[in-house]
Amino acid sequence: MWAITKASLRSITRSPSAMIFSFIFPFIFILVFGFIGKNGIQQSYKVVIEAKADTANALYQAIQQSKEIKILHYTSAAEQQADLEKGRIAGVLSIQKADTSSAAPYILQLKSTSSSNDQWPQLKRVLDDIINQLSNSLYSHRPTFAQFQFNPEQDIAQVREYKTIDFILPGQLGFSLLSAGVFGVAFMFFNLRNTLVLKRFFATPIKRTYIILGEGISRVIFQLTTAVVIISVGYFFFGFTLINGLQTFFDMMLLSFVALLVFMGFGFIVSGIAKSDSTIPPFANLITLPQFLLGGTFFSIDSFPKWLQPISRAMPLTHLNEALRKIAFEGQHLWDVKTDMGILLLWGVVAYAVAVKVFKWE
Fold it and tell me: CB neighbours (10 Å) of residue 252?
């Protein structure tokens, strides 16, 4: 088994496709998004309306109808605060009636955090425009419909910065594990079967379990090595957050190991049902491409239409990405992400149950 492992690992490191899909492709994305930082274009701004805010007025209706502002509703104050600290929402708005001495009938207040330093200046501009348009349409002599009260020194809470790399790196690590598990295993076992190597292995005294383990261990060693490199580059060069240091790193590695085993199950399925080399990419892409696009790799699945979000949340890569982000930035441990791990393992049970049925030695 160890001889098979070493030989297989040597062949993987010499495979251009393995290097590209497992390491180079995710690494390029990490470099690109790492250098971009948080300077990307923000087209819409998510806000929360304070619970005690006055919403029975034209200002709230104008904000609600704005294409540049999206109002979110939270049932958990803790979840709202967590998203505010991560910069997932631009700020909290409060609309209150002004006293009789004020020149404007309403007062609009904005509170945000330092994680949204790239959002609240633009949000302030959008709110100013809304107030000006509303004032012009309702009054000819009154100077303004609402007084915008916002002091960055007082209303911006300083929190730990949630950088672009904190979102992108876990997604790219998840994609690297997915592509290696599916494409790598599918091509490896199909070629071994097609060249009759598996048949020769099967004819020797070695147990079939050791043959599978030998090939599988080599894939695990190679892919976890690339995971170490990806995390290390993100941490040392782009400030990727490992909130609890080595503990967070080891939690991410253990989760990556579990995820890789699950994704390898899909690779076994593809290798079993493929009839030729040319049929492997379509089958493999059918599994990987939807997850790559819809699994929260580049942006939050909250950006998708509501009808698409349940589909995204059912995908195993989605739960891996979310668990990795919770561990890395929020400092949660494996037990804290047990729901995501449970769904991931459930996919693994299904995948290996099918793989046992379709896997072939010849």
Answer: 22
